[in-house]
Amino acid sequence: MAQIVRPDARYRHSYLAAHDEFDGAHRDGDGEWEQAADPATGFEGYTFTREGLADKDEFIRFVRSRRAEELPESPRPAGHVPCTFLWIVEGDEYLGSIALRHELNDFLLEQGGHIGYSIRPSARRQGHATTALRQVLELAGELGMERVLLTCDEDNPASRATIEHAGGEYEDSRAGKRRYWVTAITTDRPAGAVIG
């Protein structure tokens, strides 16, 4: 069964195979591979490439950068918010990414929402997005969030169905994005316990 985990170097080969499978398509929930330095915030910036990530040490650096994003004290570019990046896996196989943004800025309120996700093409239509979304809604509850905003493109019926299956209440559409509010799942576990 699929589960969410924090990024880990053990998935390097599978992650890179999935990257190749996406063939340049945008992967919501996976973050950017390049961020310019921002001296105003102390963010040093980074650049990762497909070729570079084939190197084990570079992939470890990549994993560390993703995991640091969830810490409120981590330097980040102006306008970016703390974000927990997670990978959807089954055994040793990377299936996709899902991210929980801890707060909304103006752009995220309009377009991006709290949660973004993508499933590699060969793993789609198998319920992995639904499973991962439920787990992230539990994480949101553990972090004290009551409701989260999810968005999807107007022409993405699969994502729309996933969000509605999770209880998403449609609010409106803005600039080609459907906006849904979903109630976080309350648990009595400590923050982060849902992550494998």
From TrEMBL:
Pfam families: Acetyltransf_3. SUPFAM superfamilies: Acyl-CoA N-acyltransferases (Nat). The keyword Lipid metabolism does not apply. InterPro entries: Acyl_CoA_acyltransferase, GNAT_dom. Keywords: Transferase. Gene3D superfamilies: 3.40.630.30. One of its GO terms (molecular function) is acyltransferase activity, transferring groups other than amino-acyl groups. Residues 46-185 form the N-acetyltransferase domain. This is Putative acetyltransferase. It comes from Janibacter cremeus.
